[in-house]
Queue: 3 jobs
Job 1
Amino acid sequence: MNTPFDVEKKTPRRSVIGSLRASFLTGLVVIAPVGLTIWLIWSVIGWIDGFVLPFVPQAYHLDRMLQNYLGLEPSVQINVRGLGVLVFLVFTIFVGWIAKGFIGRSFIRFAESLVERTPVVRTIYSGIKQISETIFAQSERSFEKACLIEYPRRGIWALGFISTDAKGEIAKKTGEPEEPMVSIFLPTTPNPTSGFLLFVPKSDVKELDMTVEDSAKLVISAGLVYPSDRTKLSDGDADLFELAGISPVEDEKP
């Protein structure tokens, strides 16, 4: 028997607003990465143009050339970007080509010797140079594989990246001939650019089959985005996910 105070249980049904909200969030997930990528590229191109174009005669600016070609009045503003990026690319390639030669290497050594004798400038230059070499020298400084190590104690596993085998004084004072050490970078979540450098016995490192990129996504998402097992998806579904740029997430079954 029901009393006036009993609340009648109803099966939840998705309303029109709820359906629109779900569609909006799904569309936002698809549009946001594309829009932010285009906005970031457009902003970087504008920043480079703003730095380079003052050194280029105004008659050779793309917007001015387009105005002259179309016969438009100077009051009509046309925002065309990209000339600064092109000039920057050509200039950078030319500097790199010169730097590879004997004269270029000699000039760089002479300039760096002058910088090293300047108290404040040498600190700034050395820091920027180390950062640049770390970022752009990918062939020599890229991570090899993703791995699992027990950190911060036994029984708790942390996701890390294998950098290189321990060398020099580190290898002599920490490793044994039968137990080599490896350097592991342990990233933080959700910012993988910061973390800890650990030297771990190689036998305590469990290498993973997932790529470094998938492992980085796992770290950035705080464990929400796992690499999908594409063998469980049909060809049509896999093509649809690739077209939308979405990585499907599937629960792992034992």
Note: Strands lie at 145-150, 157-165, 181-187, 195-201, 206-207.
Job 2
Amino acid sequence: MIWIIIALIFSFVLTIIVLIYLLSLIIGLIWARGVPFVSLSKKQLRAVDKNIKLKPDDKVVDLGCGDARVLRMFEKQGVKDLTGYEINFWAYLLAKIKNKLLKSKSKVYFKNFKKVDLSEYNVIFCYLLDYYLNSLKEKFDKELKPGTKIISHSFSIKNWHKPEKIERMFVYRI
């Protein structure tokens, strides 16, 4: 009898977690206009770490940071000022939990980065679909200072500055 009660409680908790995940996914997709939460794989993350070397005094922002794994990777490189923005609540929650468990000092905000002034950052990292990236050209042109580096994983910004291509990354310099 006790096992049935434990199984029912476990099923109920699991159902609640799945419902929260699905609800946050749907809300995130609507709010982000169809951009899903997809993390870089460990292989992709190793490629970023191998090919992108930042300085400790860089001010880095990850647009759509997901679970903040890129921020933590840059933190291991010695970068001190790391910020991420995420609008998928599930991904944001994962980022906060993982940052706490791994004692990361990177800051993650549950906020739409389109409403954030990016002028204070000199390194922008993003893993966003090309149609979403293309919608950011005007924002980048308006807010980013000369010398700012934009690292876009997997997708290029069409008809914009000529990027340097490193493996599957497009590196733009303003």
Note: Helices lie at 2-31, 42-51, 69-76, 89-101, 130-134, 137-143.
Job 3
Amino acid sequence: MKNFKLLKNPKEAYDLLYKITSIDIYKKTRVRQVIEHRAFFCYILRTKFKMTYEGIAQYLSVHSKIKSYNHATAINSCNKFVIYRRYELEYWEALESHFNVSSQFEYSQLSKLLGIQENFIELEKKHVEALNTIKEYEIERFDGYTQNELEYRKLDKEQKQQYDERAKMVLKSFEWKKPKDDYEVITCAS
């Protein structure tokens, strides 16, 4: 009896299939051999890894060159494989015997995980947009302030108190430059 390695994830299943058959099921092609082996791969993902059709579709969309792979295509592939299997039963059974799967991870949850990942990415985009909006608001809020006024906002309470005392003296020094409301009227004799 041969010792077979337990497969832990779909990537290992793909690698094993490619190693045994030299057929790249990730290619975007309508060659019969590729289609039949891709259907076999979907069947393995469904029966051995217990993946949902949506999970199979998402996995193949991400890893293969076929970006239009959806759950209906995955269902069709699994159903077609049952037909392909009838005509070459010995070949497909021999090939399937190599695919022993470790049940460490529940792959039926893969589509949920991918959905959560997509939601996280969406939230991250919204978070970045919100941060950019806040930064724009900050720029508008401080637009027109001098560099000293911006630096003042970074001071602690004690430093602000010292700054205010010194600024008060500077402002008082400008009072002599202001015009006074009382003017002396000088009349000239004509």
Note: The first strand starts at residue 6 and ends at 7.
